[in-house]
Amino acid sequence: MNLEWKGVMPALTTKFTADDTLDVDLFKVNVQAQLDAGVHGLVLGGTLGEASTLSEHEKRILTTETVAMVKGSVPVLINIAEQTTKAAILAAQQAEEDGAQGLMLLPPMRYKSCDRETVAYFKAVASNTTLPIMIYNNPIDYKIEVTLEMFEALLVCNNIQAVKESTRDITNVTRIKNRFGDRLKVMTGVDTIALESLIMGAEGWIAGLVCAFPAETVAIYELQKVGRIKEAIHIFRWFLPLLELDINPKLVQNIKLAEVYTQLGSEQVRAPRLPLYGEERTAVIKVIEQALKVRPKLPEYKNL
């Protein structure tokens, strides 16, 4: 199965009702806004999607509902974040059954596997699905780094095709390109350095604040792609205070609050998470409201 690793792919938040069930209707409102803005794919059940709190049944509902809604207009990826190799393989096979077109694959959860164990885990999943795979490399949050040497071993698996590069080291984009060329596509995974990473050769952006600001995110990608860097920088500089809400332990609550302000979501999170409160909430609201006051008028960015 082929998947074009490029463009903006939102790491979607999962919407919940006040009764702590999936709010599929509100989720679809956000998905439609992403499609209208021109995103190039959708990633379900990631960190922003509160993956660790979702049941297997809920993940399958999100996948099947999204696949049915987009009707093949963009690829739908589901995140796999499991404790055991067996569970990860099962999740990959279920995703394939449910119509997903790709996987985002995290290292084993809870157990801090060594390099050999991590490679074996990824290979085992890859060999049990035909779906294209993007390895999520985020040593800051998940404490396991997938090194260039590990990727060398992993790329014997033809369906391991991309990396969500979240080491927060822009030079790693160049290292990957120098080592692997086009064999390993780079999708930048850190909002605050996304533009720099794209300019240095990343093919796409697994984005967070796109959940609340889809048009601005896609505009930045499309403008830089055709060399209109100054225009992209102008939007990105406006965007940065908002993007910094993504590199925070409460990124889920932050971004869901931003979604409320742009009418694309609610603040409902799943316990043990709770909505923002007190001074913390006030500070985030200040960032959002200030950004909305000076929200830039976007140039025509589609079909450039």
UniProtKB/TrEMBL annotation:
<keyword id="KW-0456">Lyase</keyword>
<dbReference type="GO" id="GO:0005829">
    <property type="term" value="C:cytosol"/>
</dbReference>
<dbReference type="InterPro" id="IPR013785">
    <property type="entry name" value="Aldolase_TIM"/>
</dbReference>
<comment type="similarity">
    <text>Belongs to the DapA family.</text>
</comment>
<feature type="active site" description="Schiff-base intermediate with substrate">
    <location>
        <position position="164"/>
    </location>
</feature>
<feature type="active site" description="Proton donor/acceptor">
    <location>
        <position position="136"/>
    </location>
</feature>
<dbReference type="GO" id="GO:0019262">
    <property type="term" value="P:N-acetylneuraminate catabolic process"/>
</dbReference>
<dbReference type="Pfam" id="PF00701">
    <property type="entry name" value="DHDPS"/>
</dbReference>
<protein>
    <submittedName>
        <fullName>Dihydrodipicolinate synthase family protein</fullName>
    </submittedName>
</protein>
<dbReference type="InterPro" id="IPR002220">
    <property type="entry name" value="DapA-like"/>
</dbReference>
<dbReference type="GO" id="GO:0008747">
    <property type="term" value="F:N-acetylneuraminate lyase activity"/>
</dbReference>
<feature type="binding site">
    <location>
        <position position="206"/>
    </location>
    <ligand>
        <name>pyruvate</name>
    </ligand>
</feature>
